[in-house]
Design brief:
Layout: E1 10-13, E2 16-19, E3 25-30, E4 33-38, H1 40-50, H2 53-62
Antiparallel strand pairs: 1-2, 3-4
Helix pairs in contact: 1-2
């Protein structure tokens, strides 16, 4: 599946922007770089938090 790479994650709730914290990470080597990515369960949690159609489709793909 396509992935998005983002730095600071924010979500808007009730006209206020809130930080989204990633609580569970794993580390992958991509070429010469080591990158941290959310675990599958953490990715599902974050996608459900956003709740957009494209995010919910990604949750279905992850399952």
């Amino acid at each position: 599946m396509d992935v998005e790479v983002m730095g600071i994650l924010l979500i808007e709730k009730d006209n206020v922007w809130h930080d989204v914290h990633v609580d569970s990470l794993r580390y992958l080597q991509v070429g010469d770089l080591i990158v941290n990515v959310p675990t599958i369960s953490e990715m599902k949690r974050i996608l459900l938090l956003f709740g957009r159609k494209k995010d919910l489709e990604r949750v279905r793909l992850l399952e």
